What we know:
Blueprint: E1 2-6, H1 10-13, H2 17-38, H3 51-60, H4 68-75, E2 78-80, E3 83-86, H5 100-103, E4 105-107, E5 114-116, H6 123-146, E6 150-151, H7 160-174, E7 181-186, H8 192-206, E8 210-215, H9 220-230, H10 240-265, E9 276-281, H11 285-297, E10 307-312, H12 317-325, E11 329-335, H13 339-352, H14 354-376
Parallel strand pairs: 1-11, 6-7, 7-8, 8-9, 9-10, 10-11
Antiparallel strand pairs: 2-3, 4-5
Helix pairs in contact: 2-7, 8-10, 10-11
Bound molecules: flavin-adenine dinucleotide.
Amino acid sequence: xxxxxxxxxxxxxxxxxxxxxxxxxxxxxxxxxxxxxxxxxxxxxxxxxxxxxxxxxxxxxxxxxxxxxxxxxxxxxxxxxxxxxxxxxxxxxxxxxxxxxxxxxxxxxxxxxxxxxxxxxxxxxxxxxxxxxxxxxxxxxxxxxxxxxxxxxxxxxxxxxxxxxxxxxxxxxxxxxxxxxxxxxxxxxxxxxxxxxxxxxxxxxxxxxxxxxxxxxxxxxxxxxxxxxxxxxxxxxxxxxxxxxxxxxxxxxxxxxxxxxxxxxxxxxxxxxxxxxxxxxxxxxxxxxxxxxxxxxxxxxxxxxxxxxxxxxxxxxxxxxxxxxxxxxxxxxxxxxxxxxxxxxxxxxxxxxxxxxxxxxxxxxxxxxxxxxxxxxxxxxxxxxxxxxxxxxxxx
Length: 396
Ligand SMILES: Cc1cc2nc3c(=O)[nH]c(=O)nc-3n(C[C@H](O)[C@H](O)[C@H](O)COP(=O)(O)OP(=O)(O)OC[C@H]3O[C@@H](n4cnc5c(N)ncnc54)[C@H](O)[C@@H]3O)c2cc1C
């Protein structure tokens, strides 16, 4: 079992909120622009669209594709033999020296000129963004040197597209040999399976290790209140059962791909960088049991080190300990930071996860039982030993 020290994105990001919201807006508008130009409403990555489609549409609109700025834009799109992956070179985003307002420009169908897809950021906001990127690089570089994993938390839907996109680009950079950077997928959201499938596809096509933490999601009340206040569709699944179904579907999508990689990996036909590492971050015994059964069904063993489990320190030890003893990788999250940041974090966990409080009575009972067992069997200072291979570190 491992302890994983956890701070949320929030301390890093509070000041950068405008940038995250702007970047999330870029992602939204890019999808709209793609549909406007190509007429395709589905995800870009599964669409078979290539640059010819854009050139044809631009010619129809009398936009000169030999204009150097437009030519450069067309040439810089990210695509492979299966088609388009991204309209922009998103890897430019993680280059701390690039200006966001220079990166996100598209040919405007009405004016025929290259124009920014969002209103320009102020110099101060651009500087904040650069600083954030520098800090992220420092963290991920250090983690890679020390061979530890970094789990990037998921936050509210109005920031999350930016966090998720940045994390995926960081994965592309830092997950070349193993999964160091992990993204988080909140299964209480209606769009999560689609987003997860797209990101898995991107990691497969761009050949980097994919790391993901699957959670149910911690901001349900806030999401619903905001959707209600601003009059947009509630992004959260309609019921607890629907969230659980989404969790199961996301897990199966990952297991299916892991099994695929495993069968090819054994014969060295698939590059090892197509590998996947998943953390099941849940305090729900049924979810843990479901995962263990599904792993068995898909022929994925604990020693494959592709699935691990995560619980908060001091919570659900009766789930973590047997998992660890049965050979599964288990991480205990240790909330860490200044008191004024950690206490609100813990109180949020307590209120958002009301069901955990119900489980506490059971935990207290089990702790007493274990204490009694140790006293009666002379194992008061019992310390389990074991060899540990971190999750995602196993080459395929
Ligand atoms: C190691 C770890 C890391 C985590 N990291 C993150 C993170 O990065 N981002 C984040 O948002 N959360 C994170 N969480 C919290 C997580 O999202 C859940 O809030 C928490 O774990 C409770 O879910 P559960 O599966 O453990 O328990 P359960 O009691 O089975 O599930 C409770 C959850 O179900 C969902 N739910 C409840 N009622 C409904 C309803 N009516 N309709 C739809 N859904 C409903 C909610 O998501 C609620 O939190 C993390 C949790 C752990 C253990």
